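LOG
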Amino acid sequence: MLNPNIIENLKNYINSHQKVFEINETMIIDKKSEIDKFIEDIIPLLHTYADIYLSQSIKNFNKTRKINYSVGVKVTSNFLELDFSSTDLDKGEIIDILNQYRAKKKYYRLKKGEIILMDQEQLEFLDDFIKDFNIKDTDLKKGNIKIPNFRAHQLNVLQNKYIDIEKDQNFNKLFEQKIEEIPTKYKKILREYQIVGVEWMLKLRSMNLGGILADDMGLGKTLQVITYLESVKRERPCLIITPASLILNWENEFNKFNSSVSILSIYGDRKNREDLLSNLKNEVIITSYDYLKRDIDLYENIEFDTIILDEAQYIKNHKTKAAQAVKKINSEFKLALTGTPLENSLAEIWSIFDFLMNGYLFNYDYFYKNYERAIVLQAEKNVTERLKNMVEPFILRRLKKDVLKELPEKIEETYFVEMNQEEKNLYQANLVKINETLAQSIDINTNKIEVLAMLTKLRQICIDPRLLYEDISSSSSKINACIELIKKSIENKQRILLFSSFTTVLDLVAQECDNLSIPYFMLTGETNKVKRNQLVEDFQNEAVPLFLISLKAGGTGLNLTKASVVIHLDPWWNISAQNQATDRAHRIGQEDTVQVFNLITKNTIEEKILNLQNKKKELSDIFVENSKGSFSSLTKEELLDLFKLE
């Protein structure tokens, strides 16, 4: 027998949800919201108090019901035409069921009166499908939804048990386009993976798609592009946009392979640039991002066959003038070259895709709301997988360890340096002072320049206090350790690349080398293009054993395979910039094992930067197995941790 109190509690509970309830009378529930509540909440509660006898129709409520959905796909001109249908529901009901699902409801009452328990996995798939193709409810209801042809690959791989996709006979023809032949002379010099890369570009071109060639540094992206340009039959000009320091490098590469392509480098004064662009035929134009920004009015009305972005990370911030400029130019085919398409955030890969295939990853607000926020802030694995599937076909990435089995080993070592007591005192005093400043409620988000100055001061003390204090005459513990590494390497008949993010640090190392009569070259942002090329050529001809290089100026576009030792004197925010610099030596043509020394001052901000390098790498590992960073990408919490007193 039930406890009277339980009976009273049950009456009160039901009364609180069902106003029509009266003792000894039948309770009728006819409102949809109350039916949902009764099925989902009250029946389970009743089971806790007594044995409940349910009719078969009520029992059927808890049997999951799949709905038959299908999508017809028809190819029309440059679009795919989709039509949603269901043998069980009309289009209006499909929308209603999806809205119920989005409102976290499990049950749905069909127009014919039947109440069903909706299959949550099926509805999740359908909802994701609609998000991934940016289909609005109004379009779904009307039918005949038009989407760009570049979504064909998404549909082609989307075979799922939850929805039938019915394609017309023209759909498969999109994937059967013939590609041009690679010239015989290039087939003889290309490696197998490079032939695959060129054919991949040609295939994308045939399908009016764009792509990112994201091969590891030193795998010959430039040669693959030159081969592509020699392979295509075209009547219009092509455009290569590159950092200014690499224009001559591109010219040299075309000449090196005796390319039959007519090249035209656009630089010099404005009048000269205008004259060169005024009478184009089918040349390959080479210019820099800076010149393009200044001359965008000259490029906007030119119809290019192909546009190639070298070091495409230059457009990672979609708000910059460089990113906005390249997206104003018209071309049949677009290609991006970069070893690091995703550097600090998903917004960067969005920006590159916005150049390649405008609209493929939607507008940025939609992308942020439905993908970036869900992946970064909410760690939704399902969304991560969906985005990965969307971008993967258009990113070709090969690693040296996978395709160059004959490439010598790269051995990396973190080389810790202990400060002397004077350096420790200076470092600690500055750290305390910075924390006092931060305690005065400085807003890190709006005062990043001031915070950067604080960080720079600590980093400089870690390298050599002479960078800040004129009254210090002796070299630092780190500089001394670096010089010992240089001397030891030279004794072993090895050649060295030394990188630092501070040109003033390179000056200090140069002074020490002068004192020891160690010959060297130095390359910074002040080195002009002609001298830069000459220094590289002379180093490759073994003129000196040591090359001092600023990370920003020389981290890309150099071939320095005569070096077998790489020293990173100070860590950058993320590891990719250092990896790119290391790959000046560890690339095709290297015959010796490459030793890499990362010099880290112990118990300082440098160790924390080392931790950040690993942390920042995780996100891009999911998509392209590489990353690179900058100070501006750090969160408030990460910045505060750098200044934390131990």
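LOG (cont.) second protein
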Amino acid sequence: MEDVNTGSSSKRGYLLFWSGLYNALLLVAAVFAVPFYGARMLLTGKYRRSLGPKFGRLSPEMASRMIGRPRIWVHAVSVGEVTAAAPIVATLRSRFPAACIVMSTSTETGQEMARKLVDAATAHIYYPLDIPCVVRKVLDLVRPDVFVPVETELWPNFIRICRERGTRIVMA
């Protein structure tokens, strides 16, 4: 099978078209989502803790803990996936004791559960929004060798940028 990155210009053009369309649709969705989620955050306080980290704002203390090799990023969307990820992270830790294992979640309840259940992780972060500049910023900080999504929450920009950087993706 031909690698898309080294394939014909028509394949690259095809991917650029769909990537551009996807990013344009994200922008349109943001026009509607920002007022809705902004009002919800102001009225209920929900999403307040996760908003900055989802835009790539990681504390210097968090970034300083991400040492070791290999760097393995395990992503679980929410509580159910975190429960499934806990033994995976424990096994990775026993097989690679010097590894930097980063555990990410998409939801605040998933993050709370990950901090309780997945103590073998080096760091716990929120999964970034699938905006190219945000994804690049977080990947620059984490620098994963391997990305392990638990189940199938796959975001096109994140996957594309991981591929461009040579990060291996292994489904759990």
